[in-house]
Amino acid sequence: MSASEHRSGFACIVGRPNAGKSTLTNALVGEKVAITSSKPQTTRHAIRGIVTRDDAQLVLVDTPGLHRPRTLLGQRLNDVVRGTLTEVDVVGFCLPADQKVGPGDRFIAAELAAIRREGRGTPVVAVATKIDLVDRQRLTEHLMSIDRLGEWDDIVPVSAVRHEQVDVLTDLLIKHLPVGPVMYPSGELTDEPEAVMVAELIREAALEGVRDELPHSLAVVVDEMTRREDRPEHDPMLQIRVILYVERSSQKGIIIGKGGARLKEVGSNARRGIEALLGQKVFLDLHVKIAKDWQRDPKQLQRLGF
Q1: 7, β-bridge pairs
Q2: d(CA 41, CA 246)
Q3: Considering the entire predicted model, what is its pTM?
Q4: Which residues contact 257 (CB under 8 A, 6 or more apart)?
Q5: What stretch of H or E contains 245?
Q6: Could you report the per-residue pLDDT of 174-199, keeping only the tens digit for each?
Q7: Binning pLDDT at 50, 70 and 90, where does residue 41 land?
Q8: HEC profile of 156-223
Q9: What are phi and psi of 254, to 5 degrees?
């Protein structure tokens, strides 16, 4: 391929909550960039993963799940998604094979059709995710349901966990990108500011194993990141002060745990990921605060970065 044919552009992975979007983004990029959790609605920021090849550069924008909004936060998340969809070159629409095509999928399919009608003509690749969880017959039925759901440029079955067909999907997404130059230096996996990535890792650790209604009620804000003065040059350490906001005192108790045990565990679990991300030792200073009903309060949403 000649240098003039180098393709570059943006792809957006959408799907209803818990459709496997973040896991797929991580599989495409080959490193952990987006927060993955068994809980729906955990990705709040448009985290970009960057796939760099000799012939192309694909920048992945992982959006929050499109859903029927019930709160002001939900409405803002949907606005983020719509804004993103009109600015990308190709959309990957995830439909998990272990679940029947449902109202949530139809809602997104209608949104995508509307964006097409508005003249953007953004190509859409329908992705049957989690194919490792079903047998052949179920997969065939699922692919037929996807075909009936709308007009797609391509349909591709994928297992991000087993890395099956991930390369095929990468090729299909790149096929829809315009000819263009390299946008990011190779070796960069994401253009998210470090503080956002740190907050996401802490949020992921805090949500792990909590079966409660916490996911939507938890906001994580990195207050400051400073170098510890008391450390030698050859062995630096970063001190990160982080505030975890919940809506009620009962939730504060869940996060902190008995005698602070749970918060300590959250800190040590998150620290491993953060040290790998930043490439240096980290001291986490975690605080839990109550911000009553922050999801419905425009002032608080703004302060927490939404």
Answers
A1: 56, 179
A2: 16
A3: 0.60
A4: 263, 264, 265
A5: strand 237-246
A6: 999 999 888 766 665 555 567 777 88
A7: very low
A8: EECECCCCECHHHHHHHHHHCCCECCCCCCCCCCCCCCHHHHHHHHHHHHHHCCCCCCHHHHCEEEEE
A9: -65, -45
**AA identity, residue 48:** R
Whole-number Å distance between alpha carbons of 192 and 194: 6
Residue among 210, 235, 228 at smallest CA distance from 285: 228
CA 145 to chain centroid: 26
Spatial distance between the Cα atoms of 203 and 272, rounded to a whole number of angstroms: 14
Contact at 8 Å (CB) between 63 and 81? yes
Residue found by looking up tokens 């869940």 in the block: 254
Tell me if 178 sits within 8 A of 193, measured CB to CB. Answer: no
Token pair recorded at residue 66: 């499109």
β-strand 56-62 against 7-14: which pairing, if any? Answer: parallel
Which 3 state secondary structure label does DSSP give 89? Answer: coil
Contacts of 36 (CB under 8 A, 6+ apart): 22, 23, 26, 42, 204
Strands 124-129 and 154-157: parallel
CA 183 to chain CA centroid, Å, is: 21
Backbone angles phi, psi at 40, to 5 degrees: -65, 160
Q: What's the alpha-carbon Rg for the chain, to the nearest Å? A: 20
Rounded distance, CA 93 to CA 96, Å?
10
